Amino acid sequence: AVSDQALLKISSSAHVLRRRLSGMAPTGGDDFTSILRTPAWLLVFFNNMFFGCAGFSIVLPSLWPYLREMDATPRFLACVVAMYSVGEGVGGLVCGKLYAMRPSQAKALLLTSMFFGLFAAASYTTARMFGNSAAQGLVLASRFFSGFDNGARQTIEQTFLGTMVPAKDQTTVSSRLSSFALSGIMLGPAFGAPLQAVVFTVPGMGLQIDGNNGPGLVLCFVCMMNMLATATYFDPNDVFRRNGVTADDPAATDESSPGQASAPSTIAPAPSKLGVWTCYAVFALVNLSMASLETVTPIVAQRLYGWGPCLHPSDCHFDIRQTYVNLLLTSGGILSLTMSVMMACFLGKIIYSREIGAICLGLGTYVLTNTMNVDFGGYLPAWRFVIGYLMGAFFGGMLRGPNISLLTQIVGPHQKAPYMGLLFAIGALPRVVGPFAFVELLMLPPSLEPVDFPEVYTGPLPRTWLLYGSQAAVYAGMIVMVAMARAPIRRHIEALEAFSRHSEPLLPSKAISSSKRSIYDGQVPGLPATPSCVREGISGIRSVERAEHIGGALDAGF
After folding, report:
1. Cα-atom radius of gyration of the chain, to the nearest Å?
2. Percentage helix, strand, coil for the chain under 3-state DSSP, each rounded to 5
3. How far out from the chain centre does Cα 415 lie?
4. CA 229 from chain center: how many Å?
5. Is 475 within 8 Å of 374 (Cβ atoms)?
6. Alpha-carbon distance 189 to 525, whole Å?
7. Which of 147, 432, 462, 484 has the fewest CB atoms nearer than 10 Å to its CB?
8. What residues contact 138, with CB distance under 8 A and at least 6 apart?
9. Quick one: which of 369, 405, 401 has its CA closest to 388?
10. Given this model, what pLDDT does residue 534 score?
11. Secondary structure class of 467 (helix, strand, coil)
12. Rounded distance, CA 196 to CA 351, Å?
């Protein structure tokens, strides 16, 4: 039998889900349409996402010189870079499962993951104190836990947004969050660049801080600030209350207690497998591009043009070319930030319902930029390499946000946390495999001549046709796959929209609003004297549609 409490919960959930799928914000909820009225909790998310992703890239320009201090090999460098993405995937899967079981503990999960990030930053900073072998292990472990922290942040925050933000604002808000992530990745080196000119010893520890391990010290400070902001300004239960959803509401968790009828989400069309896996594939290629831009770019710039930090920063003379890689990555971050402003101001609203077109445009840009970086005739001009990098950084922001928004629409009213956790786990795979593959693809073609860049690099001049040509082919193939999946995805989203239009609440919105507290205490003010014959008459309800047929009779009884 369906109890009054379960009936009220179904009615409330249908009301909330219908408004969200139709693009309407709950009465009295947060306003996501104006940047100036962005809620405090969303600003905390932006801050966390920016600095969490900056933790990936802030160490990249100096990571190789730092590892060379420890007598590490280039392949160990690939392991260290990949280990961050392994941690990111593990963090996404683990925290996605935990968040699905305990959505009201989002704050505790975030703070726990940030503690791991703080531990990782401290380990990275102090690694050189423990000898070469132990130092290499500490750097490897620190990158894993930094990735775990970032994967957990992205999964929890993106799932929370998918639950709280109405459909019409999903593209705008997801693009803002994704743009902060991309900007963090791109601008991370800017935080480490000034440290190239800093050398000092921590009193009482004998620990030298310089351009190689200084980024870890910056990350320690950033993690503490993130923890303070999250603890102070993010209260998930308060956000649920303001937006008309409770932590136990199916709109937030999609779970029903034993003995209760299923919520409307259980009869909504199941998420399209083709659509979900298309979004997963696109997200994987977005991260493949980011791995290429951030991981292999410093190596290519060092070996083709002699740009980047010298082998021993404290022993070599300053040369302006030592800052070129940092400047290149920082310029890419500025362009990514420009895209984020455009998405926040007007592009997000334009792209809504046109996400697939935006994804194809972004993938087309990747095809173009990778083709530009092919060394036709054995020569890649620096200007072409720089323009290709900057174009990829700018248009990269047009892929991530719309893709996540599209996945949210495909999942619909069903539980989003497992899908988001798997999304970030799959997205981490290219950043695990990518560094190894990129190094091999760069080294595999035979070199035409040796080069000598004093204090930076001496060895064979690499060829880039295999590295960038293969990526261009992969992105071109993905455009074809997305175009083929477009029609089935649109039909699925239209089916969800049709479902939302027919999921009318069983109770008036006033009764729903006044009965929120009753969901917890087992009392139903809206049903003070429901006749037993009515309860018996609805005891066989199997779906919300059947319940709607008797909704009028229930309302008449009130």
Report:
1. 26
2. 75, 5, 25
3. 17
4. 19
5. no
6. 58
7. 484
8. 123, 124, 126, 127, 130
9. 369
10. 33
11. helix
12. 41
Q: Smallest Cα–Cα separation from 428: which of 152, 90, 59, 112?
A: 90
Distance (Å, whole) CA 265 – CA 413: 5
Q: What percent of the chain has pLDDT over 70?
A: 75
The helix/strand/coil state of 208 is strand
Encoding tokens for residue 398? Answer: 């047009």
Q: Is 458 helix (H, G, I), strand (E, B) or coil?
A: strand
Strand (E) positions, 204-333? 207-209
Q: Alpha helix locations (H) across 22-73? A: 40-57, 60-69
- Burial class of 166 by CB neighbour count within 10 A (0 to 12, 13 to 18, 19+): buried
Residues in the chain: 558
One-letter amino acid for residue 113 of the chain: S
Beta bridge partners of 208: 201
CB contact at 8 A, 353 and 329:
no
Phi and psi at residue 503, in whole multiples of 5°? -90, 65
Asked if the model's pLDDT at residue 413 lies above 70, the reply is: yes
Top pLDDT among 418 and 554 is at: 418
Strand partners, 125: none
- Give the DSSP H/E element, type plus range, for residue 138: helix 132-164
For the cut 80, the answer to whether the pLDDT of residue 448 exceeds it is yes
Say which residues have a Cβ less than 8 Å from residue 11's Cβ, sequence separation at least 6: 505, 506, 507, 511, 512
Residues forming a β-bridge with 458: 452
Task: Map residue 209 onto helix, strand or coil.
Answer: strand
Write the pLDDT tens digit of every residue in 219-258: 888 889 889 988 888 888 787 777 666 554 444 444 433 3
300, amino acid identity: V
Q: What is the structure's pLDDT at 186?
A: 67
At residue 517, does pLDDT exceed 70?
A: no
Write down the residue that tokens 């836990």 correspond to.
145
What does the block give as tokens for 5? Answer: 């409490």
In angstroms, the CA 257 to CA 423 distance is 27
Place of tokens 């900056």: 54
Q: Which of 1-10, 61-70, 241-250, 373-382 has the lowest mean pLDDT?
A: 1-10
Neighbours of 344 (CB within 10 A): 19
- Ordered DSSP codes for 297-316: HHHHHHHHH--S--SSTTTS
3-state secondary structure of 250: coil
The tokens describing 214, both together, are 């200084």
The token pair that represents 434 in the structure block:
């990518």
DSSP-derived letter for residue 33 is S
| CB burial string 25-34: b at 16+ within 10 A, e below | bbeebbebee
Q: What is the 3-state secondary structure (H, E, C) of 217-246?
A: HHHHHHHHHHHHHHHHHCCHHHHHHHCCCC
* H or E, element range at 453: strand 450-453
User: Rounded to whole angstroms, how far apart are CA atoms 313 and 468?
Assistant: 31
What 3-state DSSP class applies to 433? helix
